[in-house]
Design goal:
about 50% helix; alpha+beta; about 10% strand; Nonspecific Lipid-transfer Protein, Chain A; two-stranded antiparallel ribbon; 10 helices
Length: about 270
């Protein structure tokens, strides 16, 4: 009998909304003072420049605002849950890139774009009613779940921006926590079991991979790493072998090898 899957983790709508706005504000402050030379720098995202990436970050919020302006779907339940969302991103990568580049051409004033995006999001997204259904390109989702995916978008691309432009944009703790936990839960969902414990302190601990399950004491197979390293591994921005070699990941036990399970999203 295959291992039973756990119930999905729940998130507080108001706290997640606050986290999204806080992380966007951190990015906005950094983007406001970027020089033309910095904006023209390349990124690790194909042909995108820093400016393209900065524009794309506004879409993390505008996607929610725009969908809230549409009629609520009539279906009784969401079509896409949090744990299914990462699998949907690769199929939409081309369209996302096209939309980003079109917006970059259309909106030359980044500061005005960021101000408008934040104001529209704050006005459109209620502090309650997280169960409201929204139509998205991935399928119908609950508002609170969509907001959790926004923490992933914002945290991952903040890291991209820091790497490309040599910045040190801070991470809102709640946004970083939500991003870390979602990606850890996706791993546990895709490789259910209890033979390996994956620890990402201070935010997440999950068990995964079929095999003998420990019930007490220290488990025989343990993987441990920091939140940003885990996020980079889960999104394909870091390689398992290299992170092990450079001691950013510790892995003990014969089953503590996640190489074949990563990345979880592209």
């Amino acid at each position: 009998m295959p291992p039973a899957k756990k119930r999905p983790r729940t998130y507080d709508h108001a706290r997640t909304r606050t986290a999204v706005l806080a992380q966007f504000a951190h990015v906005r402050e950094a983007v406001r003072v970027l020089t033309p030379e910095q904006l023209a720098l390349p990124t690790r995202l194909g042909d995108w420049t820093v400016r393209d990436l900065a524009v794309h970050l506004t879409m993390a919020l505008s996607h929610v605002s725009r969908n809230l302006e549409l009629p609520e779907p009539s279906g009784p339940k969401p079509e896409v849950g949090l744990l299914q969302w990462p699998s949907s991103t690769a199929a939409r990568a081309g369209r996302i890139s096209d939309d980003t580049l079109a917006l970059a051409l259309d909106r030359p004033d980044l500061d005005a774009l960021y101000a408008e995006t934040a104001e529209r999001f704050a006005a459109a997204v209620p502090e309650g009613a997280g169960d409201r259904l929204l139509p998205t390109r991935a399928g119908t989702m609950r508002l609170v779940d969509l907001l959790v995916t926004r923490t992933v978008e914002l945290v991952v691309h903040t890291d991209d921006l820091n790497e490309a432009a040599g910045l040190d944009i801070p991470y809102d703790r709640q946004a970083l926590a939500a991003c870390t936990r979602l990606l850890a839960d996706v791993l546990a969902d895709r490789a259910p079991g209890g033979s390996v414990e994956v620890r990402v302190p201070p935010f997440a601990v999950v068990q995964c991979i079929g095999g003998p399950k420990h019930t007490r004491g220290t488990p025989p197979n343990v993987v441990e790493t920091a939140p940003l390293t885990w996020i980079r591994l889960a999104t394909g921005r870091a390689e398992w072998a290299r992170e092990l070699d450079e001691a950013r990941v510790s892995a003990g036990g014969e089953r503590a090898d996640l190489a074949d399970l990563l990345p979880l999203m592209g």
